[in-house]
Amino acid sequence: MTGTRLTIISGCSGGGKSTLLLALAARGYATVEEPGRRIVAEELAGEGRALPWVNPQGFARRAFDLALADLTAVEDANEWVFFDRGLGDAMAALQHCGAEVPDGAEALAIFDPLVFMAPPWPEIYQQDAARRHGFAAAVAEYERLCTFYPAQGFTVITLPKAPVAERVEAILAQNAAD
User: Where is the NadR/Ttd14 AAA domain (predicted)?
Assistant: First the structure.
């Protein structure tokens, strides 16, 4: 993974992370879609046994496994790769459920030490078929993540509540500062 920079974009559910990843992809950066959204889509099309509102622990375990698979998929990358949530968020969810974090958690150490956090932003928050929880639950998750990442040795950088282009520039400017 020489020359690869793996960066996590985490934060509040409904805080604009997926939109931000789309903008980064449009600028030519490699991105990895949020595991949770992919799992929910699969579960809604199937039996729905690992939906976060049905089986939070099963959902978190699947998110963890999918996040590890995402890392394997980019192991030959030689570029900056942005992850919408991913391994750290899945680990935080497992901890929140009281579950043991499975083998593979050490892979979190290969990520860039900066984690970009999308803060709670009620003006853009929307519930949908995959995001059934309310804004208060999203804020509680955000607060857990803001505690989780520093405890793992990461530095959290809060993204501005600004148009997506400004958010992209905030991330890319941090790269220039490193």
Answer: 8-167
